[in-house]
Amino acid sequence: MHEGRYERYVLRFLFEARTSREKMWEKETYFVTLYDSETGRTGRGECALFRGLSADDRPDYTSLLEYYCAHPHEAPDCPYSSIRMGFETALRDLESTDGCLFPGAGPWVDGREGIVINGLVWMGDKATMLRRVREKIDAGFSVLKLKIGGINFEEECEILAAIRQEYAASDLTIRLDANGSFTPRNALQRLDRLSNFDIHSLEQPIAACQAEESARICRESPIAIALDEELIGCRTEAASAALLDAIKPQYIILKPTLCGGFAGADSWISEAEKRNIGWWATSALESNVGLNAIAQWVAAKRPTLPQGLGTGQLYANNTPTHMMLRGEKLYNDGLTSKD
């Protein structure tokens, strides 16, 4: 018999985390722990509700957690992405004896292999962003992701020009994330400007739920477009397939917390691969509990593209972890949550 409880936890950023949508100093999350009364074993997961962005952001969220703690085996099939991911993780952890949550993740869990990730550069003024870029490059990253849309566009172009004066595209890959900050009217003009800087891809140029405009931008953009927020709220495989057919992006960005848990993200990958659409995964500001689960899920898939899992060092009060960065690779030190 499996029983569960949940705990609210507030993560505190080490700095002001800015996107084009908001400025954050804190991030709320929920941990769920399941107990097997017969064996005495426990399993832990994270329901990383993202207020203001997740389709799960609703006033009765804690009531939903109470229900699924009492009925944990229903949670992986529920319509709430963050709850699905948290309980998928906890149930797998409950059944695991060595901390390995996904078949095939063993080489990462035991420390033999690392996951190549991009260095994440948060928004700031020009001097701050350039300093952060140099710090990431000095740390060994060959792929950087810059969040844009929070300061003057001309200044952002100046930042990119300064980077390209020092680092050629053959030495440094640049990904951009606009977080929907462009408009349908200015998106292509801005993408044309940005293409001068040898950009690999740009995430979510305009706000979600504008499928016709997004399709036009994907069709005409000189830079490959990746969909991110657009995936939130698609609750069925048919809806996912219809969205990909309508917009035809070059890439999709998978956040299991926001796009259906791990099973939902698997479905997105299946539909994307049928259409020759590339993908990579990113964390959605989870604690190390959720990040570990996402890293294991990714490692089991043996991806070819750098992933977006560099959020483990954002918080002053993150949960304990065996994960560590060595250059541009995320490693586990070979110990597990069962140690």
Helix/strand order, N-terminal first: EEEHHHEEHEHEHEHEHEHEHEE
Specify the CATH class of the largest domain: Alpha Beta
Strand content: 15-25%
Strand order across the largest sheet: 5-6-7-8-9-10-11
Number of β-strand runs: 13
Q: Could you name the CATH homologous superfamily of the largest domain?
A: Enolase-like C-terminal domain
Q: Based on the structure given, which CATH architecture of the largest domain is correct? A: Alpha-Beta Barrel
Major sheet: 7 strands, parallel
Q: What percent of residues adopt helix (DSSP H or I)? A: 25-40%
Count of individual helical segments: 10
**CATH level-3 fold name of the largest domain:** TIM Barrel
Roughly how many Å is the radius of gyration? 20 Å
Question: What is the straight-line distance between the termini?
Answer: 24 Å
Structural class: alpha/beta
Label the overall shape: globular
Provide the domain count: 2
Low-confidence stretches: none
Mean pLDDT, to the nearest integer, reads 93
Structural features:
three-stranded antiparallel beta sheet, globular, 13 strands, Enolase-like, domain 1, TIM Barrel, 339 residues, alpha/beta, 2 domains, seven-stranded parallel beta sheet, single chain
